[in-house]
Amino acid sequence: KHCSRGRDRTDEPQEADGWASRLYAWGPAAIWAVVLFLLSAWPDPGGMSWVPISDKVVHGCLYGVLGVTLAWGWYRAPGSLPHALLLVMGAAYGLTDEWHQLFVPGRVADAGDWLADVGGLVTGYGTSTWLLGRKSDAADVDTNGTT
Q1: CA terminus-to-terminus distance, the chain
Q2: d(CA 10, CA 63)
Q3: How far is CA 110 from CA 52, 96, 100, 114, in A?
Q4: What span, in angstroms and rounded, lies between the C-alpha atoms of 33 and 9?
Q5: What's the CA gap between 35 and 5, in Å, rounded?
């Protein structure tokens, strides 16, 4: 057997599967972070005044999706990062998003927007982890054959 860094060559396909499973787990959050960046780089979105809802609701919904994708990552890669760290990372991303808007013509950084981001993030994350936990509990009951 040929060993590399203490592992057998037979472990290599599993390592490749590890990358695929990490991409499956965290890819949606990374893609959504790019979408958020592109949206915040959009100069002067004042043309959206036809939307009959507050921009805080829009911020909350967009960051709610980020919360959902972070919860998905946590669910698919359990034990990888604690809940609090994922929420802090999401909130920090929202803060950098507001900072980024300082450099975009027609955009402003707004603490209220960031608070809406955090509210949406926590709501999306909390709801998703609760629902995914219920799904996991139901699967355990089905697998164990108990009710």
Answers
A1: 47
A2: 41
A3: 20, 12, 11, 7
A4: 36
A5: 38
Residue with the two structure tokens 């929202």: 94
Give the whole-angstrom CA distance, residue 109 versus residue 102.
6
Angstrom distance (rounded) from CA 46 to CA 50 = 9
Helix (H, G, I), strand (E, B) or coil at 11: helix
This model's pTM is above 0.90? no
Per-residue CA distances from 9 to 5, 44, 51, 60, 84 (Å):
10, 55, 57, 47, 37
Which element (helix H / strand E) includes 7? Answer: strand 7-8
pLDDT of residue 15: 52
Give the dihedral sign, CA 111/115/116/118: positive
Mean per-residue pLDDT of the chain = 83
Is 29 exposed, middle or buried (CB count within 10 Å of its CB: 0-12, 13-18, 19+)? Answer: buried
Sites in the chain below the pLDDT cut of 70: 1-17, 45-52, 78-79, 136-147
